[in-house]
Amino acid sequence: xxxxxxxxxxxxxxxxxxxxxxxxxxxxxxxxxxxxxxxxxxxxxxxxxxxxxxxxxxxxxxxxxxxxxxxxxxxxxxxxxxxxxxxxxxxxxxxxxxxxxxxxxxxxxxxxxxxxxxxxxxxxxxxxxxxxxxxxxxxxxxxxxxxxxxxxxxxxxxxxxxxxxxxxxxxxxxxxxxxxxxxxxxxxxxxxxxxxxxxxxxxxxxxxxxxxxxxxxxxxxxxxxxxxxxxxxxxxxxxxxxxxxxxxxxxxxxxxxxxxxxxxxxxxxxxxxxxxxxxxxxxxxxxxxxxxxxxxxxxxxxxxxxxxxxxxxxxxxxxxxxxxxxxxxxxxxxxxxxxxxxxxxxxxxxxxxxxxxxxxxxxxxxxxxxxxxxxxxxxx
Length: 380
Description:
This protein has 4 domains: 6-104, Orthogonal Bundle (Helix Hairpins), CATH 1.10.287; 125-258, Chaperone, DNAj Protein, Chain A (Ribbon); 264-337, Urease metallochaperone UreE, N-terminal domain (HSP40/DNAj peptide-binding domain, Sandwich), CATH 2.60.260.20; 344-379, no CATH class. Helix content is 26%, strand content 25%. The protein has helices at residues 6-10, 18-32, 43-57, 60-69, 93-104, 133-138, 279-284, 344-356, 362-379, and strands spanning 125-131, 140-151, 167-168, 177-182, 185-190, 199-200, 213-224, 233-236, 252-258, 264-267, 270-278, 286-291, 297-302, 311-314, 330-337. The strands form 6 sheets. The chain has a 4-stranded mixed sheet with strand order 10-11-15-14. A 3-stranded mixed sheet has the order 1-9-8. A hairpin with a 2-residue loop joins β10 (264-267) and β11. α2 runs antiparallel to α3 (43-57) and α3 crosses α5 (93-104). The radius of gyration is 40 Å and the shape is elongated. Residues 76-117 have low confidence and may be disordered. One of its GO terms (molecular function) is ATP binding.
């Protein structure tokens, strides 16, 4: 029986790219897999035919020969199949293995060769640092103690006694992974002999027991720039966990949290300060003294007749911008305070004041005029 055209077998065009051929193959392999077609006696032969076609077309050299000579390229008259053997003989599962690697390689650490773990990079570390608003305003140098893994001094991080170089694992030949054939699938797993490192240590270091690193608390000096806020992240390259067996160290990430302040509320680079004033001071106006985040004082003029919630701005008295940005502003919000625990004399004076102040409360007059209008409309 004449062989079918390989492109027809895969359902692909002759000018198809490598990605298009792989996509077509995956679709056909899934469709014709014998495990999914137990009621089709021809499924296995069709599945093998698909694998045979892809085995040729996935290889650029074989594909070029096939495109020029067809099936004759792999028969005796043309000098045999490039690379030797007939495409239908040998391990047809190798083509399927490529797709298996493509689908699951990321979950299993990649293909052999990419999983070499002679020197593994250390893990990144996180350190949460709490600072005051004053420290965030001015910036500071701070010493922190970080528990981490450091390179072993005894073996210089190699994990071997006297710093000797590890040997290549005889089981996986340094790949760190081994493969096993299970039916149509090739299963890849970490090498059981070297636990995926690709190396064997003949004489483990007695100090670190072959790990190449030890647990230790380190003191680090950290520069906290002015203007940091909660959520700011500072990266210290190479200050994380030491790598395994001489691998590079990870990074240390410091996450800043700025503590709440008793006087100031922060909004980006702006600061808000709520200042209580007496009823008489709000009515008469005058000057008040307010604190600033740099430890200084500023005089603020209160206009006469000020109401609660009135805001006044002090330019550039807020927080500095991170990385040299302009300073924000400081906003003073007035909170007019009603006196409490009045004496009899104070109450009498306020009653007298109330009688004389009917025309001095425009907001109250306006509100109650609207209320009377509302009630009259309801009656109508």
